[in-house]
Amino acid sequence: MTAAQPNERERADAARAVALRPDLAIVADWVEPGARVLDIGCGDGALLAHLAATKGIDGRGIEISQAGVSACVRHGLSVIQGDADTDLRHYPSDAFDFVILSQTLQATREPRRVLIDMLRIGRCVIVSFPNFAHWRARLQLLVRGRMPVTATLAHAWFDTPNIHLCSIRDFTALCGDLGAQVRRVVALRGDGRRLPMPARGALANLLAA
């Protein structure tokens, strides 16, 4: 006996059934139907697959790990192996409607340069990152005098991929320096739920993970 190959509708239904990470679910909500999308550090392609199935986007991805690229290719996604620090400069200006960088900025060698390239090649840029000013991180530094390990900063200092940690205020200040207009901000708790307060305020910078 031979197993039947899933048709387009079945693949779309499967993609819809995948539970996205909370920050990715917000990103997916912001992306417009039919948009040209570049997902940088796309991992196994969960976001791209979801957007293709639910919004019919023209999606591309860059992923540094071979395992991630292989997973994306198995699911029929257009993803190449690459490094945000070196490969974004080769993309033409205004090539995409949305350029997405989720939980990856802090692992780049030159985050300012990466953000500049993203703003150049995309009409809109969406970035998510762990907030180093979260109260748990502050408390661990204050009480223990050691680099914090939290749910969103889960690695010890000697084996972490995160090399440029920042707070919400740091990132907002960088956007201002680059002349980028910040249109939307969402602050999330460690469990992925939204904080019931202005996302640009001092309290969100303390409580957002």
Short key terms for the protein model shown above:
209 residues, five-stranded parallel β-sheet, disordered N terminus, alpha/beta, 2 domains, Rossmann fold
Number of helices: 9
Largest sheet: 5 strands, parallel
CATH architecture group name of the largest domain: 3-Layer(aba) Sandwich
**SS class:** alpha/beta
Instruction: Give the low-confidence spans.
Output: 1-6, 12-17
Radius of gyration: 18 Å
Supply the CATH superfamily name of the largest domain.
Vaccinia Virus protein VP39
Order of helices and strands: HHEHEHEHEHEHHH
Terminal residue distance: 50 Å
In total, the number of strands is 5
Percent of residues in beta strands: 5-15%
The top-level CATH class of the largest domain is: Alpha Beta
Mean pLDDT across all residues, rounded? 90
CATH topology of the largest domain: Rossmann fold
Number of domains: 2
Sheet with the most strands: spatial strand order: 3-2-1-4-5
Shape: globular
Q: In percent, how helical is the residue content?
A: 25-40%
